[in-house]
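User: Please predict structures.

Assistant: First:
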Amino acid sequence: MKVIIAGAGLVGYNIARYLAAAGNDVTIIDRRADLVRKIGDTVDIQAIVGHASHPSVLDQANAADADMLIAVTQADEVNMVACQVAHSLFNVPTKIARVRAQDYRQGRWQSLFQRDHMPIDVIISPEVEVAQAIALRLEVPGALDVVPFAEDKVRLIALRCTPETPIVNTPLRQLTYLFPDLHLICVGVVREDKFFIPGADDQLLVQDEVYFVVETSHLERALPAFGYEQRMSERVVIAGGGNIGLFLARVLEKRFPGLALKLIEADPDRAAFVADNLKRTIVLHGDAREREILDEANVRTAQSIVAVTNNDEINVMTALLGKRLGGGRALALVNNSTYDLVTRRIGVDVTINPRDTTVSSILQHVRRGRLKSVHTIRDGEAEIYEAEALETSPLVGKPLRDLRAHGGMIVGAIIRDEKVVMPRGGTIIEPRDRVIMVARSDVLRRVEQLFAVRLDYF
């Protein structure tokens, strides 16, 4: 497949890297010559300097032969115009655009992106999706990551093992005997910054980050096995009133009516705007790094402090200060993934990388076959996805223990006739089953063959 990517920022770069690694013909466009040169030197793709919305630049990228345009520049308008030009002049079949401003997506303007007007097939709104992802983490105590699948019938949960985790130093095969009615499968472990898919004889250790798939209705019973209680925060402080902070407060107001919310914003005009657009959230004007404003927000009584300004350093500092002053869990929005190496060690409980959320959303629309959902794990080290098994799939009719023999992949859950089936070694996948599977990035080609459709990139 030939793909043109408009925008060579972190999102564009990572999408280009994933697509190129899968053997696709990728061209990336950006105005910044130094960035384009760097990407061209590190990834086997064509890199072009220019305005992605200009017809001459898209023509230079051979847009007439392209199967897809993914527009992820920093400007909504450039992304939209690039899609329009790609459609009108070059007849590009599929157009995906990142659009941050929600004004474009209001219901009263819903006809804007129709084919006869501004033809964009998929619109990605990173701030909204990041806000939703943070809300899910707040809902599950201790969660490092939460991803719903199959209409939220099952969830992928990531937690950190502590000395209070009852099942540490216990072979995973014994979980079935310890919790016979608990629908839970451990699908991944991060130990000493390395991800691996555990076997039945592996044990969890203190400080391990464990990924497990659990039937959502069993989550309340699953958390105590890892030393956590199912108790949603009652008081949350949000630092940052940008789009993510505003959307997060809206989500929390709607989903948790009894939640006490306070939001801190440094810009007075923005603080006034946010206050006018929220119903129950108390909005404070000030610098969230200052002791006085954190005391005014009563951060010492908050179960969670969430720092989502547009500055990584401010987010990390605010999260740490809030926790030092007595706040509970500290969550920080961090765009620079290098910070992940130190944030946990200095006291930040959870880092949220908006790039991962955006890349996962886009890849879900780039892939083909019976794929319904996809989520990248640890910057692409592995992926978890939901896919439908076809009658022609080599996976159908064979016990899952045969799958484990190949290594690098594991089935976390099966949805059959709208019911959740937790897989065991003797479980046999049937046609039309929806399979929740985790696979390391180096075995995705093998996954394609198992499903008899291309689950990888076009």
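Second:
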Amino acid sequence: MNISYIIKFAIDLIAVLLLALGLKGLSKVRSARQANRLAAIAMGLAVAGVLINYLSTSGISIAAWTWIVLGTAIGGLLGLLTAIQVPMTSMPETVALFNGCGGMSSLLVAIAVFLFPLTNRSADLSNGKVELASIVVSVFVGAITFSGSIVAMAKLQGWLSTPIWTQSKLRHLFNIVFASLSLIAAIELIRGGQQGLWLLVVGSSLLGIGVTLPIGGADMPVVISLLNSYSGVAAAAAGFVVGSQLLIVAGAMVGAAGLILTQVMCNGMNRSLVSVLFGGALGANSSSKQASGEYKNITSCSVEECALTLEAAERVVIVPGYGLAVAQAQHTLREVTRALEAGGIEVNYAIHPVAGRMPGHMNVLLAEADVPYEQLKEMDAINPEFPATDVVLVLGANDVVNPQAKSDSNSPLYGMPVLDVQEARTVFVVKRGMNAGYSGIKNDLFELTNTSMIFGDAKKVLGDLLVELKELGVGKKN
């Protein structure tokens, strides 16, 4: 047995184990940072294993080394700059873009292997039906992942809105045409026709756009998670194309993890995956009265009143939302909660599964501000505690705290699990204005007698609140 094969096998095995440990570690905020490092090391080992394999079998020319070094340098530099410069509010868009890059990578690998068959394979790809089938899957899923991710990123960034025509049933006809075109191209490609390759790329790309374009913002966390799963499937298919067991295993793990997370997100919104993909935007069929959300019984208050109420509280729950991320107020919030804790007040954070614009968005946001992990409470754990909570401070959240989800059977939100903040004695909601959430639905919480609105930018409001708490002596108590 070739010594280089043994070395590559050992490297691949270590890489797979590190990747598995990395995925497992991502399930908890406390271990997520270390898990990312393990996954990065695993990917580095995977690249080293591939290079060792080709050096020992066919060698790598100087020209090839030039492309490898150049590509690694450019990709590494772009990744470093992205990690440093992208703000937390743009993290969902970044994740969507990364999913698209993964799909495009698998797509390009499949195209390259089809056009330039690997010389060290046992059979020519033009005659190998299994290999051709793998190429078809890699191109099909990779193209859908790339085009769908770009659309998702553009919608999250605000560059692209949901066209009116996509809310009609006409969109299904277009998607059926694109799917049929992809099927015809796949059959032609398996039969050996090179023109089928480009037809499959076009058809799959259009299908990815057609499926993603009608999806509304409220469903975007589900879409991001699903696209992550697609990128894993595309990578696994690319592994079959190039004969890489490591890529197959890694892609399968990512695909399975993304699919499980997608199901968790759907459960968190009380939505089926079919309704997300083919039902259009959440709240698109709601009545104009619901969508306009005219409020009549709003109670607003000052920061001083909020500070006085917090001073007298024993238990406080913070509900973070996307508005907190937009204001980049997580660090100011942490200063406020430190003052409350120093004053003997118990503070916890209620985390809804789909708060923000991607799974785990709020967890990462608060971890960035060094919020203790044990204070982050998931929805099922915190909901029973609201009746015994003195004050709830809602920061930029909307649909996830809407009582309509439980009280109004005609609401598009009905049945969606939400945080029962209305059960607390006092609720303060910090918002810039009375704009509706992603669903476009009026929030009945805002009109309850125990709810007071504090209008303004979350960072400024929290900064003023911190000043008021200090003036009241909160945090100086023994």
